[in-house]
Amino acid sequence: MAERAARTEMEAVLQAAEPVTRSVWLMERAGERLGLPVEHIHELVAPQEVTVFRVPCKILGQVVNFWGCLALHNSARGPFKGGIRLAPDVTIWETTELARLMTLKCALCDVEFGGGKTGIRVDMARMYERFGRTPRDLAFEKIISLDAIEYFAQQYRDVFLKHHYIPAPDMGTGPDEMAFIYNETLDPASVTGKAEGVHGWLPGRKESTAVGCAYVTLRVLQETLGRDPVEATVALQGFGNVGRPLALELASAGVRIVAVTDLYGGTHHPSGLDVDGLLEHFGETATVGGFPGGEPIDNAGLLALPVDVLIPAAAGDVITGPVAGQLRARCVVEAANMPTTVEGMTVFEQRELPVVPDILANAGGVIASMLEYSSSLSAIKPTQTEVYDIVRRKIGENFDLARSLAASENLSLTQASVELAVQRVYGVMKGRRMI
User: Fold this and answer.
1) 93 is in which domain, residue-wise?
2) Residue at 415 is within a domain
3) Which of 3, 5, 99, 214 could cross-link 117 (Cys pair, CB 3.0–4.6 Å)?
């Protein structure tokens, strides 16, 4: 590891030490392999700007204050880009880590953006208590998320209008929330992931992450595991904005989805779940739990299934060291951001278990965001087919480059992917005299 004693001016300013995170760990190792000076590695890792804010929101006649943070990591290769996450456990370091991850993702897939991220602490359980709501009410949750984003957009309107930071959906947000940002700016290039019909929306943007993830999963099945898709089995953790279209994409290729879990339950059938039926059940209940076409399963059970591919598509840090050691999947495709901890990644390297990292597997969303942003500026809208073709092409080209580097340098695919990204960011930072 790089020398940590001088490890960042940011920590001195904040009077707090950053916890060990996977992107820092991976970037420092990549910098060492590339022979970069320690001080340059530190500047690659450190964010350019971090802001902590409070958003006072008027919700159903009450004032609710939400705290959050905005991390802008690196703009060497383009404007800051990254989603808005609503969650009860948002922290400054998690948000910084996700912004750094976006820098790597954009660089790896040759997207002309830098990394940014917003996290707003919204605890839905506390909102239910505060407003006296029971049982679960999706319409009530939508009121909370829309109001939080509306007031956030008012507070950061000028930042969006300058295209300094261009937000998009993330956990807890979607096209409806992005439409509220557009309502505030009236600039179609100020936000991506907008709802269909909103000025500057992009056909296929909502499904693009799943399309890219399905593409690389099918390639790994055939080229790494030697499995025909119709013989392959997949376990999917998460059935949200990525998990649902991903299940459809894989099922349409003949892959058997044998287990799915979400926050409220899980279902398992060794012969394969009826994905269409599962989607219908989810639409009625907002969970995969209780699906009559399968048997109940929890996350621990899903993570231990003997499948060809495990796809974590929900929260981060679910594959710890002990979990990684007991995993019986033949390959992991990271559809979620940071689903594997540093300890888990170390175990995977020791086991030589194939892993497609998040910065490659889920890059379809930011590739499509690049197209949405650029088409909003030019008023030339690509078709859904063109969007999907570009997503697959850019992921495929860089998958090939990373595999080639991994083979020639005896690296894991994750290490090779990060090294490619670091090289690209570092080269531009040097050229622009930013380092």
Assistant:
1) 48-185
2) no
3) 99
Helix axes 22-34, 38-45, angle to 10 degrees: 150
Neighbours of 295 (CB within 10 A): 12
Residues in the chain predicted with pLDDT less than 70, given as ranges, are 1-8
Is residue 212 domain-shared with residue 273, that is, in the same domain? Answer: yes
Query: What angle is formed at CA 4 by the lines to CA 43 and CA 36, rounded to 5 degrees?
Result: 45
Kindly report, residue by residue over 105-122, the tens digit of the pLDDT.
999 999 999 999 999 999
Q: Which of 367, 341, 291, 435 is nearest to 107 (CA)?
A: 367
Q: String of b and e for 317-327 (b: at least 16 CB within 10 Å)?
A: bbbebebbeeb
Question: In this structure, which amino acid lies at residue 316?
Answer: G
| Assigned token pair, 196 | 């269909």
117 as an active site residue: the answer is yes
Q: What's the rounded Cα separation, in Å, for the pair 99 and 118? A: 8
| Residue carrying structure tokens 């639409």 | 283
pLDDT at residue 7 in the model: 57
Torsion 32-34-38-39 (CA) sign: negative
136 and 9, same structural domain? no
- For 230, residues 6+ apart whose C-beta sits below 8 A from its C-beta are 254, 255
Catalytic residue among 105, 117, 194, 394: 117
User: In the prediction, which pLDDT does 144 show?
Assistant: 97
pLDDT at 3: 45
The reply to whether omega before 135 is within 30° of 0 (cis) is yes
Distances (CA, A) of 44 to 30, 59, 74, 344: 11, 40, 8, 24
36 shares its domain with 83: no
- Total count of domains within the chain: 3
Kindly state whether residues 17 and 137 are assigned to the same domain: no
